Amino acid sequence: MNNTTIKANVSDDSSMQHAQAESVHRFTERQGEYYSAQFEKIQSSNRLTVTFNPKAALFGPCWAAARNIWGFFWLSTFALLFSLVQLGRGLWGELGADKLAQAARLSDKSQEMAVKAQSALEAGAANAAALLRNSENLQRAADNALAAANEAAQGAEQLVIWGSVFLILVILIQGFIANLVYEKKYCQWRINNSEKSGFSYPNLLLGLAMLTMILPLMLYRFTAAKPVEWLTAFPANKAIFNSTSSWLDKAFDAIALQGAGFFDGITYSIRILLDGLEVVLVDTPWPVTTLVILFMAWRLAGPRVAIFTIAALSYLAFLGYWEKSMATIALLGAAATLCVLVGVPLGIVCAKNRTVDSIARPVLDFMQTMPAFVYLIPIIAFFGTGKPPGILATIIFGMPPVVRLTALGIKQVPPSIVEGALAFGCSRRKLLLDVEIPLAMTNIMAGINQTILMCLSMVVIASLIGAEGLGTDVLMALQFAAKGQGLLAGLAILFCAMIIDRIVQGCVKPTGRPAG
Amino acid sequence: MATDVIQLENVWKIFGKNSELAMKAINEEGLDKATVLERFSCVVGIADVSFTVPRGEIFCIMGLSGSGKSTLIRHLNRLIEPTAGTIKVLDRDMSALSNDELRGMRAKHIGMVFQHMALLPHRTVLDNVAFPLEVQDVPKFKRWEISQHALSLVNLNGFEDRLPHQLSGGMQQRVGLARALASDPEVLLMDEPFSALDPLIRHELQNQFVSLTKTLQKTTVFITHDLDEAIRIGDRIAIMKDGRLIQIGTPEEIVMQPADDYVADFVKGISNLKLISAHSIMQEINSYTVPEGISLADAPRAKEDTNLEHLIDISITTPLPIIITNAQGVDIGIVSKDTLLTGIKGKGDE
Fold first, then answer.
1. CB atoms within 10 A of CB A496
2. Phi, psi of A124 (to 5 degrees)
3. Is this complex scored with an ipTM above 0.85?
4. Cβ distance of B102 and A425 shorter than 8 Å
5. Alpha helix locations (H) across A259-386?
6. In angstroms, rounded to a whole number, what is the distance separating the alpha carbons of residues B340 and B278?
């Protein structure tokens, strides 16, 4: 009984080895024997195995290209290039050539001075001594330059030595890691057979072509004393830039003119919302506003947040920031409201519709990464200055998180729960309202929170185009380098943000129950 | 009136972009699964499945994972559309229903229980159970009342206002069952409902489920990968492999006459004590010679459909053989201890 099982194992083993060798042969296409032996050696040990691949060592980039390992190709090419450039500079580079020329120039001048001094001395002029001193100084400078030139020339030897040491190191490292890298590649190939990595002539040719293109140019650039100009600076065409930017200018002007009614409409509707909020926040007597905010903080987020809110509000009030803070919050509130009104439905559509998603994604990236100053310019062109354009700029920057997180939340609703709802005859509308949105609520609220904070971070930039509030104070402080004023206004913005953030986070908790 | 509640005729499901083309090719050329995958890169999920389920029956579909059983059950309420074939539930062609009719059908007539419960985590147990009623616009008071009753059917009174995650797995699945029963549907679809539960709870729920469906007279399609469960629960069992039904029959038929080696392999380990009846092992009463020193006068009696397990229980209590009677109470056969032992061993050896 035992005998048979052992036998079976042995035969299994050898057949497995055979299969492995055969698959390595298929993988490498050439020199299968060598690589199957090397791979077996690597795979038999748990430690780092020492194997040396002489071909990879000598022809590093070419070997990598032929074997389709482009990461190796580039690293090896750059290492090679670095050492060759050092060698080249050491051997043929005219190091210190500029210093030598300087020395010659200086010593010429010194000679000249010396001649002048001589003649002045003979004539008995008063400035003779000064001229002589001048000449001596110049001669000393020339000697210094000459010494520097010599030193640089001696540096060439060092460059040659270091270059060769580095070259040898590169060759050795290539040789030692080539098989390890190739074995990793083999393991990947076993998972996905489409990742070809056998020996291939087209790849070798491609690698060679790149090498012949890169190496001579680089060597020339670093060894020649004065390389051709088009190599060091791209021959850009100023005319293309000018015509493009002036064309864009005209386009903006035309749009602003054509769409004046549309833009005014947007400005007007934003103004209505903003006015409403300003009436509530700014024109309401401060005790009422304080009371309401405190009550909200206490009920929604608990006593700790309420205490913090008292402290923050009194900071704003006692330092005279009250009115400006309320104006800022009104501005921010209008921006955030619009963000949520547009962003949440947009996020839902993105989650449901692939096409919309693929269009919206780059647009959102653009909105988030484009520096605010860039889109401030067209906003001024289209909407003028003042608070509504400031709100628009804030919306552009603040909307992406709520869209993204809403889409994420809807996508993350477990398909089994959706299926369960559908199996009981749930309609699409009910599915969205009663299943998907409630389950995505945690994410949506996180998105809203992010949006509010990002809107707040825009107040300083929005104040640049006339959206007055706390941002204006920071801006003024910046202009007059008023450190204290800037810090106080900055803290005021921070406190506004923290109050809103804590209250909104307090709203999130009761709905955000863990799923399942 | 033994009507067929569920009727499937030549149902095919092929997954993939070219499913129509693949279906046509299968009809014309009779391709097999591997060829379809190679030529059209389509996966055959369900292949030519036909069966009917009469009212009140528990129909088990048994198969290993990947055999297409979960896909098949989703055809019955059209969560998945068939590529070809007709599916009738309660005499209505499911493929022909409009969206509204389909929703009505799902809400009123077809209840479903899922392996992973699929309860709404943000709703209380009561509101979860009331969900199918809510879909039908039943007013809140009424639907809470009905749901309360459904919860009492599965012994979950007192948990109405908990959230699903506060309940154990077995309790959650009972909520799932209550939800499926809430709108009193005629058809129950059970998609491996007890697979994710631990063995003790599973056993308990199986028993609860069988007695519940028997009293409520629900027509049930029950998916499982466990033959023991299928035998314990099913009136009839269908064995599924690679998208095809390879045998349909009562548990006894499946165990005693497996259609092929695949089924035979499955039933090998199944105890036949509950499946074999006295009738199939007894000796004719006329051919039985009473051994000396024994009088049959005190011998116990049992009906001819008594199973072996029960016969063993009787036999332990007496040294005498057991007399078997038919439905009218007439003695027709004898089971001695020897016959009983042969009967127990009998089929297992073949």
1. 24
2. 75, 30
3. no
4. yes
5. 260-278, 286-301, 303-318, 322-352, 354-369, 372-383
6. 9
Q: Does A511 contact chain B (CB < 8 Å)?
A: yes
Chain A residues in contact with B184 by the CB 8 A cut-off are none
Residue B348, pLDDT > 60, answer: no
From chain A residues 424-483, the ones with a CB under 8 A of any chain B CB are 424-427, 430, 434-435, 438-439, 441
Instruction: List the single best residue of B74, B116, B163 to mutate versus A (max A Cβ within 10 A).
Output: B116
Q: What DSSP letter does each residue of B184-195 carry, written as one string?
A: --SEEEEESTTT
Burial class (CB in 10 A: 0-12, 13-18, 19+), A508: middle
In a domain, B35, yes or no: no
Select from A416, A417, A419, A424 the residue whose CB has the most chain B CBs within 10 Å, as the one to mutate to test that interface. Answer: A424
Domain CATH for B292: 3.10.580.10
Whether the pLDDT of residue A241 is over 60: the answer is yes
Distance from CA of B153 to the nearest CA of A (A): 19
What letters, b where the CB count within 10 A reaches 16 and e where it falls short, cover B74-86?
Answer: bbbbbbbebbbbe
Which secondary-structure segment (H or E) carries A87? helix A70-91
Say whether A424 and B112 touch across the interface (CB within 8 A): yes
B196 in the same domain as B101: yes
Residues of chain B with pLDDT > 70: what percent?
98
- Supply the pLDDT for residue B269: 75
Across the interface, do B135 and A425 touch by the CB < 8 Å criterion? yes
Nearest to A513 among B104, B105, B121 (CB): B121
**Are B239 and B333 in the same domain?**
no
Which distant-in-sequence residues (6+ apart) come within 8 Å of B111 by Cβ? Answer: A424, B132, B179, B180, B181, B182, B183, B185, B187, B188, B189
Nearest residue in A to B118, CA atom: A417
Are the beta carbons of B163 and A513 separated by less than 8 Å? yes
Task: Tell me the per-residue pLDDT of A450-501, one tens digit each, with 9 for 90 and over.
Answer: 898 888 888 888 888 888 888 888 888 988 988 899 999 999 998 988 888 8
Chain segment B112-145, per-residue pLDDT in tens: 999 988 999 999 999 999 999 999 999 999 999 9
Tokens 């913005």 label which residue?
A493
DSSP reduced 3-state for B197: coil
Inspect the interface and report whether the beta carbons of A425 and B108 lie closer than 8 Å. yes
Mean pLDDT (whole number) for B237-264 = 88
Number of domains in chain B: 2
Residues B290-319, mean pLDDT to the nearest whole number: 83
Domain assignment present for residue B133? The answer is: no
Could you tell me if B303 and B343 lie in one domain?
yes
| Mutation for A interface: B99, B122, B137, most A CBs within 10 A | B122
Cβ contacts (< 8 Å) between A417 and chain B: which residues? Answer: 118-121
The parent domain of residue B344 ranges over 278-349
Task: For residues B152-171, give the mean pLDDT.
Answer: 90
- Read off the tokens for B257: 């006459």
Q: Given B121, B132, B165, which is nearest A425 (Cβ)?
A: B132
Fold of A248-511: MetI-like fold (1.10.3720)
Using beta carbons and an 8 Å cutoff, which residues of B are at the interface with A? Answer: 77, 79, 102-108, 110-112, 114, 116-122, 131-132, 135-136, 163-165, 179, 189
Instruction: Identify the residue with better confidence: A271 or A13.
Output: A271
